[in-house]
Amino acid sequence: MLFKTSKIKMQWISGQIDSALQIIILFAAKVHFRFTGKPQMLTSLMRDEIIYPGDSGIHMTRPCRAGDLCTKELERLSALPETAGIMATWELMINSNFPYLGKPGAKTCKIHDIGEGLHAHIQRGPNEKVPFEEVKNG
Predict the structure, then answer these.
(1) Sign of the torsion angle spanned by Cα atoms 31, 27, 105, 110
(2) What pTM, to 2 d.p., does this model score?
């Protein structure tokens, strides 16, 4: 997986990213690689402020429960007749394997454009169980 900036890479390894979110992002990156032959790019993780109208603020939760992935390569392939629909299939695979547990109607993966081109917003629902527990002494 690629990181858009060194700041995003440092956030990824900081221990402040929800472990369930990391699993979902790694799954999305693996499927992206299988479909495109190219690594997935993580373009956003933790934020300190709302960046567009309607932003839920989920990137500001700690541990962080949302990240954004670049979809340019999937868009390129979706425009070709022999691979049309590949981006929708990728999105469906993520949502089928990781249904959003929380707000009814919300999705774990949502492909949208907030004014800078399409990207995939990946989020972990508030009712999702964290897959790892801390080891406790005693």
Answers:
(1) negative
(2) 0.88
**Whole-angstrom Cα distance, residue 46 to residue 60?**
6
User: Looking at this protein, which amino acid is placed at residue 14?
Assistant: S
Domain spans of the chain, in order of start? 2-123
Alpha helices of 1-138 — where are they, by DSSP H? 6-12, 19-36, 72-78, 86-97
**What single letter denotes the amino acid at residue 48?**
D
The per-residue pLDDT for range 29-83, each reduced to its tens digit, is: 999 999 999 999 999 998 776 665 666 667 778 899 999 999 999 999 999 999 9
pLDDT at 93 over 80: yes
Omega before 104 within 30 of 0, i.e. cis: no
CB 46, CB 11: distance < 8 Å: yes
Find out whether 51 and 97 touch, Cβ atoms under 8 Å.
no
